[in-house]
Every structure is written in structure tokens, then in C-alpha cells.
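Provenance

Sequences were taken from public entries as deposited. Structures were produced by running a predictor on each sequence independently, with no templates supplied. The record for Protein-lysine N-methyltransferase EFM4 from Umbelopsis ramanniana AG is shown for reference.
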Amino acid sequence: MEGGEFKASQLGTKQYWDSMYVRENVNFEEIGDIGEVWFGEDSVEKMVDWVTDNIEPNTKSIIDLGCGNGHLLLALAENGFQNLYGIDYSPSAVQLAKSVAKQRDMEYIQYQTVDFLNEDDWRQSAVYDIVLDKGTYDAICLDPAQEEAKQKGEEGPKERYVEKVRQMMGTEGSFLITSCNWTREELIRDFGKYFEYSSHVKYPTFSFGGQTGSKICTVAFTPK
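Predicted structure for Protein-lysine N-methyltransferase EFM4:
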């Protein structure tokens, strides 16, 4: 994959997310706050709207990669979906997601602690109809290991991510990703080896310096 890259950041490390979700578990236990909604409520609503517009509840399996506190899956559950799965490499995130789901009587949402980029034997036979990502690819691109791999001319977490997502899907599934670091064109480029662009979600735009764009983008892909 060619094109722009981002410098490594603590946002790309497991240590950062573990410590953050330890704090958010404490907050949830003390005041019932489930924690931050990354990219805001609007991004969640847009992704849920895309899913509800394209599939009927419980006819497809849906997995959220890097589910965090599970907010996206909770929103889908509120819209009648039950065949829901969430994975995250942070045990503290999964603990929080399970606690929130239990509080809301949504324990049918299945959460699991999985570092899917580095666990080759993880559910290799499992195939999901809809794969969701809200910010996880962004974080992976900030992993210091990505910069190290680039310097060595090797495949890094960013490339492994694209391959893993493709392995999770059948021939007729959909992959829906929301990013604040990459434009629609850049995501189409990065995922073009295994995926075809299908559609995108429209967000309010702004103009600055003669350029027009939006703060985030949500793009849908189908497997090649």
C-alpha cells in the first residue's frame, strides 16, 4: 500500500487502550457512564442507518472489530439485531462492554477478547456477513509496529488487518468502516486488493483553504 502514512502514536498501542478502559470501568461502576463514543453519536447513527437500510434484523451475522465499550452493537441491538459479536484486544474493554450489555439486558451480544491480527487460529472457520469498524483501522495505522515494518520493507499491522478482514467474510458480505484519519479515496486505495467500493455515507462538509471535505468518512465495501 502506498500513499500517506501517520507517525506512530500511543493511540496505536495496547497499553494506552488497556489503561483507558480500566478507568472507564471504574467510571461505569461508580456513576454508570459507559465512556466515550468515538467520532460522536452521529457516526454511530450513520452506521446503524446503513445496516438497517441494507439488511433485515437477525438475517445476518455482524461483528464489530475493536468494539470498545460496545456502543455500536448496543445501538444495533436497540434496532432489533441480535446476531451480534464484538471483539477487542483489550480485556478491560471487553469487561466494560459485557457489563453494559448486562445492565441493559442485552447479554445475547457476544464479546470476546481477541488480538485478531496476531492470533492465526482465531475462529478461522467463522464467517461474518457484516464486518464493522469504527476507528480500529485508524488506531492500527498508528501502531509503532507499522512504522518499524515500513522501515524494514515488511508487512505491518495495517496490511495484516486488510487480509484478516477479508478472511472473516464470505463472498457476499459487506465491510463498513468509519475513519477520521483517511479519506474515502484513501480507504478505497488501501482496501482495493481484496475489496470493491460499494457505497459511502454522506456527512456534513466544510470548506477551508479552498478544499471541501468532512471530518470523518464511512465507506462500504464488498469482497472481490
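Residues 207-213 have pLDDT under 50 and may be disordered.
The beta strands are 62-65, 84-88, 110-113, 128-134, 169-179, 195-201, 206-208, 211-213, 217-223.
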